[in-house]
């Protein structure tokens, strides 16, 4: 069984910063990618930032230059440092894990979500 646990989030004023963390654990697996998605009320879930197993990072245009994704490979954790937050960043943020147990087909797992609220 593999699971992901998110932490961080909360409320901040416009221009402030927050840090999200996600930890993956369970019986041995290979991480293909880990990342963050977000979903605002009435909107579709959208990608924020991802980091591949090889360490390549990808950012949504709105995240570029403000958000930084990083990982600790030894601990199977990722962090998302969010700076210069705007009210439009308000959403539930979800951790996404794409992984595979050795010799098995790839699988995907979502965290439970953590609320980020940015007030003007």
Task: Produce the secondary structure layout.
Layout: E1 2-8, E2 10-13, E3 18-26, E4 30-39, E5 46-52, E6 57-59, E7 67-72, E8 77-82, E9 91-100, E10 107-110, E11 114-119
Parallel strand pairs: 2-11
Antiparallel strand pairs: 1-3, 3-8, 4-5, 4-9, 5-6, 7-8, 9-10, 9-11
**How would you characterize the largest beta sheet?**
7 strands, mixed
Q: What helical percentage do the residues reach?
A: under 10%
Q: What is the strand tally?
A: 11
Can you give the mean pLDDT?
96
> What is the count of helical runs?
0
Radius of gyration over alpha carbons? 14 Å
Structural overview:
It is a single chain. The protein has strands spanning about 1-10, 10-15, 20-25, 30-40, 45-50, 55-60, 65-70, 75-80, 90-100, 105-110, 115-120. It contains no helices and 11 strands. Helix content is about 0%, strand content about 60%. The strands form 2 sheets. Strands 2, 4, 5, 6, 9, 10 and 11 form a 7-stranded mixed sheet that branches. The chain has a 4-stranded antiparallel sheet with strand order 1-3-8-7, with no helix packed on it. By secondary structure, the protein is mostly beta strands.
Question: Nutshell version of this structure?
Answer:
By secondary structure, the protein is an all-beta fold.
Features:
120 residues; elongated; mainly beta; four-stranded antiparallel β-sheet; single chain; seven-stranded mixed β-sheet
